[in-house]
Each structure stands twice: as C-alpha cells, then as structure tokens.
Write a structure and sequence with these properties.
The chain is α/β, with parallel strands linked by helices and 182 residues long. The chain has a single domain, classed as Aldolase class I (TIM Barrel). Helix content is 23%, strand content 27%. The chain has a seven-stranded mixed beta sheet with strand order 3-1-2-4-5-6-7. The chain has a two-stranded antiparallel ribbon with strand order 8-9. α1 runs parallel beside α2.
Length: 182
C-alpha cells in the first residue's frame, strides 16, 4: 500500500464526525487559513511517513470503530496515496468522512481528488474563515463550510447536505444517531 504523510492519529475521536471514530490527520496544507485549529499540520515536510497498510490494520484491530475520518492538513492533497486505503475501508463497511479546505465542486472537478471524494460518505468542505467562525453548528468551524452527504449528492447530481438522524432519549436530550450502532 502507498505511503501517507501523517500529522497524527486519534484512535477514538468523538468530535470528527458521528460516533466514535478513528481520525487520521494528514500532513501538509497550502490553504493557510488564518485561525486554523491545526497549523502544525501545514508543512508538507513535517509529520511521519506511514504505510497505509499499517493504518488499515490498526483500524481493523479496534472492534468498536465503525467510522474513519480523514482531516488535516489537507487530505485531498494526498489523494493518490489515500484512495487505496479508502477503498479497503469501504470494502470493510466503514463510514468515511473527509474534512477538506476545497469545496465539493473544486474537488469534483479534479481528476485525482474526485476519486477520493466519491469513496466518502460525508465531506465537510470549505476553507476556514475566521470572521465566520461558529461554535454552535456541529462538525464545522465556520459558517461557509458545508457537511455534505456525498453519496446522495452523487445520486442527485447536486450537493445534498448531510442531516444526521436525531434520537431523543429522555425529555430534552438530543443524541445524534449515525446509523452505525444498533
């Protein structure tokens, strides 16, 4: 399997998508968004080089993980190396999210990035804009960003926003149901 340049891994994240997820932070990003929450991931020469097979085996070993998120840095800048790992994860039934500074439209128009985007379930797109920062909308950092249901968008031929199912437990406690756990 190909090599990926990694900024870090969170094997039990609960903030990078629905459910407990395995999050891979890829190294390298040219967007340079002022106020980025992960500026240490911008330098393309930093981080650790890892074989994607090692990452795949680590994910498989964690029986409680059914979701994987790729964040950064900029995951789509490593699209060629990322695609085989994502194909293997899809083959095992994992739910896949990608956080990218590119818009869905930009990624879809690029022959390399579009391969990876098509393998995702959800794409959180758009550059972080400090003046539009939000702490109240789940899964995004600024109001210009979108949480996109990739597979439904491909079926419909236009962007479809992701809407998590909400399960009410008790009188006033909303819980997001990813559909991954029964």
């Amino acid at each position: 399997m190909p090599l990926l340049r990694i900024a870090g891994i969170a094997s039990d994240s609960c903030v990078d998508g629905l459910g407990v997820r395995y999050t891979v932070f890829l190294q390298g990003c040219a967007h340079g968004c002022p106020g980025c929450h992960n500026p240490a991931s911008h330098d393309y020469g930093s981080g650790e080089v890892m074989d994607s097979k090692t990452i795949f085996q680590d994910i498989l070993s964690l029986k409680y993980i059914r979701g994987v998120t790729f964040s950064g840095g900029e995951p789509l800048d490593q699209a060629v190396a990322l695609a085989p790992l994502m194909k293997d994860l899809r083959g095992q039934g994992y739910n896949i999210w990608i956080y990218t500074g590119y818009t869905f439209e930009e990624a879809a128009a690029d022959s390399l990035m579009s391969v990876v985007v098509r393998l995702a379930d959800v794409l959180v797109d758009g550059r972080f804009v400090r003046s539009k920062r939000t702490l109240t909308i789940p899964f995004i950092g600024s109001e210009n960003q979108r949480v996109i249901d990739v597979q439904e968008s491909l079926r419909q031929g236009k962007v479809q926003l992701f809407t998590p199912r909400i399960v009410w437990i008790g009188k006033q406690t909303p819980h997001f149901n990813s559909g991954l756990y029964y």
